Amino acid sequence: MDHNKAERIGGLGGRVRALRAARGLKQQDLASAEASTSYISLIESGKRAPSPAVLAGIAEKLGTSPDYLLTGREEQRAEEARLKLAFAEMALRNGDNGEALQAFSELLSARSDLDAAMIRRARIGQATALEKTDRLEAAISLLDELHREQGIAVGSEDWCHIAIALCRCYRNAGDVALSVDIGERAVARLDELGLETTVDHVQLGVTLMGSYSVRGDLTRAQLLGERLLRAADEQGSHAARGAVYWNAGLVASSRGMLPEAIALTERALAMMAEGDNARHIAILRMNYGILLLDVAPPRSEEALQLLTAAQEELAEVGNADELSRCELYLAKAEQSLGHLDAAASHAERALGLLGSEGRVLSADALASLADIALLRDLPVDARQHLDAAARQLHRIPPSRESAETWRRIGDLWRRHGKQDEALKSYDMALSALGMAPTRAPDPVLTDHPR
């Protein structure tokens, strides 16, 4: 007999026997025309599995439900668990990430009330909540376990969700190479199966596209974007098409193609606005505002309005990274308008949101404060901020993003009149992009006297 089936029968028999004894009943009290006393004995010993009709009759006499006898879960407790799971998932959608994390954790600590599908939903929800509360290591650990489970069908909604989250978490944790590897393997598995394209499949490709961009692999990102746009157009989802246009805009921006980037981002925002994902809409508004600050001349007032709206929305539904990034670009907008006090306040808020852990964003915030200090003619403050920014960058793995911040620090050192420090920062920027210093040539041996 199948081991799991035997366990289920044995568990059922034990529950029948325990409830019968607790209620002061004898085996013959459970007997009926469909089940003799000897048959009840076989059920209790785990040697027979009752038919649904017999099980329903036994449950009625014991004052319980067939579901409890089969699974050991009280129906009322199971219903409470279903409601709590739905509440946790709703809290997660509404941006109440701490509350959602607590609810998922409580559910998983009493998982006897959950069936296998509910346990998986709770674990995925817990991992998502951990990610949104910036506990990336814990989220990755849980997602790695889920990703290795054999029972999750490739191409299913759960499988796609786990692969997308794992790819995104490794990227945000700074391990872009592993993020790309996970994304490429997942896309390849979907291609091998020839499954019909869904929104989840497109989102997986979009996440990989973002990792390519962070790695500086802009050609691959663009080619994948063109493929995804065709798939999204066929799929017909506004959210899927918006996500592709969104990332295509980021790639165009990285290549310095600002008019194209603005057009793509405008289109993405129009498509996303037809949905109800407030967080995505807020991030798109932020991206749009950033682009408007980069055009010549900057459209600073318009950018400030977009970024202010994005900041208000992200305060409700975003995570610390997203909100701090928005604060940094608000600082840039205010600085471009000559509002230095407001700019400094935004940069300091960004720094406060990020905490003490080494982050590229923390270095960006410190570079912004240094920039503002130079404009205020406070060179000592500027130097302190730049030294602190460099210490932050030394604590994290090199990446294209860190290279951009090293370049910015070098430019600020140059404005400060410190050429040696500027050259060191430029060297760090090149190293972060994988360009090692040129090795000095070996001395040439010669027979000619000196």
Automatic annotation (TrEMBL):
UniProt KW keywords: DNA-binding, TPR repeat
Protein name, per record: Helix-turn-helix domain-containing protein
InterPro entries linked: Cro/C1-type_HTH (IPR001387), Lambda_DNA-bd_dom_sf (IPR010982), TPR-like_helical_dom_sf (IPR011990), TPR_rpt (IPR019734), TransReg_Diox_bact_type (IPR050807)
Superkingdom to which the source organism belongs: Bacteria
Taxonomic lineage of the native organism: Bacteria, Bacillati, Actinomycetota, Actinomycetes, Kitasatosporales
TPR repeats: 403-436
Species the sequence originates in: Streptomyces kunmingensis
Domain (HTH cro/C1-type): residue spans on this chain: 16-69
Pfam families reported for this sequence: HTH_31
PROSITE patterns attached to this UniProt entry: HTH_CROC1, TPR
Cited SUPFAM superfamilies: lambda repressor-like DNA-binding domains, TPR-like
Keyword DNA-binding on entry: yes
